[in-house]
Write a structure and sequence with these properties.
Distance between the termini: 50 Å
Largest sheet: 7 strands, parallel
Strand order of the largest sheet: 11-12-10-13-14-9-15
Radius of gyration: 31 Å
Number of helices: 23
Strand content: 15-25%
Structural class: alpha/beta
Shape: globular
Oligomer: single chain
Helix content: 25-40%
Bound molecules: adenosine-5'-diphosphate, zinc ion
Length: about 750
Amino acid sequence: MAGCNEKIYAEVILPLFSEGYTYLVPPGLAAGVVPGSCVVVPLGKSKVYTGVVRSVGTEAPPAGRMREIISVQDQVPVVSPTRLKLWEWVADYYMCTVGEVMRVALPSALKPSGWSGEEVAGKEYRTPTETHLALGPAASDESTLNEAFEKLSKRARTQYESLLRLVQLLGEDHPFGRSVPRRLADIPYGVLHQLQLKGLVAQHEVKVGPVAVESEFAGLPHLSPAQETALQGIREHFRQRDVVLLHGVTGSGKTEIYIRLIAEQLAAGRDVLYLLPEIAMTAQLVGRIRKFFGDRVVPYHSSYTRTRKTAAYIRAASSPGGTLIVGVRSSVFLPGANVGLIIVDEEHDPSYKNHESAPRYNARDTAVVLAAMAGAKTLLGSATPALETYVNARTGKYGYVALTERYGGAVLPRVVISDTITASKRGERKSHFNKQLLDSISKALDDGRQVMLFQNRRGFSPYVECGQCGWTASCPNCNVTLTYHKSGRNLRCHYCGHSAALPDRCPACNQPSVEPRGFGTEKIETELEPFFPQARIERLDRDTATSATRFERIISDFERGRTDILVGTQMITKGFDFEGVSVVGVLNADNLLAYPDFRASERAFQLLTQVAGRAGRRETEGLVVIQTSQPKHPVIVQAAAGDYAAMARGQLDERREFFYPPFCRIVSIRLRHRDAQVVRQAAAALAERLRLIFGKRVCGPQPPPVDRIRGEFIESVLLKVERESPFSKAKKLLAAETRELHRQEGFRQVSVTCDVDPI
Ligand code: ADP
Ligand code: ZN
Ligand code: ZN
């Protein structure tokens, strides 16, 4: 106990960029102010925020006037020490503030802010409650109840009937001391009021509690011998290691193995977190696992409403164990200390990395850290593991379990490489399709099967150009060409959202010669139609999947065979399980390879393998046609052969030689400013200072491929740090240098962001 005169202070995390907010704890609130509790505090002249207590102590901070905590939000579950520790780790590792972590880790409904205490109080989270009815004091036993019925039967027929109905619901043999939800009793308000006045019925609020769940899991899948061996292997490794990589080819039935491991954990009263890279995949998966785990499944993702997200958060955070959280990236912040297992499916997927705003965390790596903090295990699953993960697994840091055959006798698809140049020379190429691909599509459709066509969008968006003078439409705010959208006949910037009408005449030469160029999924769809007039063709990309619902509809139409051909971008490559697909076509593999990025080849391999993996997932063998002008390119050949090991060997050799991850760690530093001159000078100054410390480990500055976004010019500097040297120290030095840069007159307004382990 603190002495009477001793003051108590609390450091509070606020969802802001700066940190170090300390408040005085009023004696009346002391009991509720503990690390992790939600508190309402004043800030500045008139603002009020909800924050999370980071620490509590009696040592007076050096600051002068100290303000008081206004109130404690005791309806919100306390952020557990494990999760607070995780927030601290993310902030430290990814170079941001704990407040920025809090912003994504806590649903917005739980951290209201406003201009006054009342305003915030109005928005505070309240545990949902339900009104229950019970018998009142004037009907508390058999005799008084009978007396009441006696009286009512003569004078108040509706009251009599309502009371009777309530007693029936409460259980006629012994209705006393029990309650039922009012909505079940369905008693008109006026009647209820009368009964209450007479003391015959009492009403009270009951918190909507955890749902009752069954503890037996019926009908768990029987595993094939190969799956059983893999499961044993995983269990074996978990005895000595905290992380295991399940490297299982597409269609090998990794999900069924996860289901078995999940069942064990839930039965033992522990929580499980199951991460997926894509919202649409959560829908497909939740449908598949609800039949085993019912109400224990708590799905969570960003397109949920505030209320739904908050409810899921509360359930996960206050779970006594036995809850299965299924979600995308940000769900990594949900589990409490009871978590026993974290599954990261498709662990190689770049969507796990948040690169747009702080915290720029990778949910896969964060999951591994969380599991270690909570004493849990992590299972990473993929058919095409990230090279970082693969190296960790091959060097014994992680356990490694391979599953090399498809489930149920399905075989991996046959892959053919179709040379676009040869096809053109022979006159066997029409529009974007080689004859070989068209023939395969015809055959599949004749057999009543389905087809998926993949077109990489990046770098190949349709744009418009003047046929006379070569003018192209570009964004006034960003250094990119505008993308042409045929459906709306308009031009749009994919970086800032700027949109413009398609000009009738060229703004430069005034000729009516502005024409679409390049080819995106929309163009493919249009040009495919004349070849297959009977086929039902759908397209899945950012333009058609404008909402989660539309995405799910396109997917489910295809799943149910209402669509014959699905044309799409990366979106169709994710781990979907469609049984009717026999042919998968890759329209142009060249543009996957032509990336100015050290990960280009790895990504190309992953994409091609994942796309190919959608074909022939049941009895009949699938066929994959990869169109390319570089049929001999090692990555194309490796992907066609399904030879991950060869890809890994080749790529790791290159990475070692040019000193890239996994042989070093990278921090990518971006500087932005409205003035091109200022940002260039600032970047040069920062790079120079960094060189004094890190020498040739500093690359740049150089402008990124898109060097102007929303009117700001961008420069980037890369810092490479040896695996062996202390990364946190390097980052501290880097942070100090960026602060130093901001102290320089002219550079104050340059914004600097650091992306640790960029993808
Ligand atoms: P992966 O995720 O490894 O690509 P999936 O888990 O989607 O593969 O499995 C591929 C298909 O095989 C799915 O339709 C799945 O339901 C089926 N399957 C896999 N294992 C089993 C099993 N043990 N029992 C029944 N069906 C299975
Ligand atoms: Zn022109
Ligand atoms: Zn723009």
